[in-house]
Design goal:
Length: 136
């Protein structure tokens, strides 16, 4: 049996995950990376995307993360993010509404009266949530 690594995913609102995992995959700003127990310590910023991990029962789990930071230690991975949700907690219609709002703002930006970067990052969150919620 493989040894497990502890995974903690924390947001200002709540502890989203606090669980042992066999492997954790995360969207680092320099590329996707995987962490197993015994990994050399490192710290990296994250892109908005999906954390994937295999739980102790061999089940693949998926968690949306809104960027943030990952700290990998030999026995623990800690993810700090402004927001994060397990796939099963994603409200698809809320994400679809957020996507519509962001797209509308991006169109309006052609008139030069809105914050383009904010709308783009909101759209990125919505697209990631929608695609994760629709994965089966
Ligand atoms: P919205 O415009 O719908 O609030 P957002 O991308 O601006 O979306 P965030 O700032 O990322 O939202 O998150 C705010 C809080 O709402 C967090 O606690 C986050 O987990 C939660 N949240 C946001 N969107 C969803 C969703 N589609 N399903 C479940 N929880 C969500």
């Amino acid at each position: 049996m493989t040894e497990n690594i502890r995974l903690e995913i924390v947001t200002p609102a709540k502890n989203v995950v606090s669980e042992d995992a066999q492997i954790v995959m995360a969207p680092g700003v320099l590329g996707e990376f995987g962490v197993l127990v015994g990994h050399t310590p490192f710290l990296t910023a994250l892109k908005t995307g999906i954390i994937t991990y295999k739980d102790v029962d061999d089940k693949e789990r998926f968690v949306f993360v809104n960027g943030g930071f990952a700290e990998a230690l030999p026995d623990k991975v800690t993810i700090l993010s402004e927001s994060a949700e397990r796939r099963s907690d994603i409200d698809l219609s809320r994400a679809e509404k957020a996507q519509e709002r962001a797209l509308k703002r991006l169109e309006e930006d052609k008139k030069g009266d809105i914050d383009f970067i904010r709308a783009k990052t909101a759209l990125r969150r919505a697209i990631n949530r929608i695609s994760l919620a629709q994965t089966r």
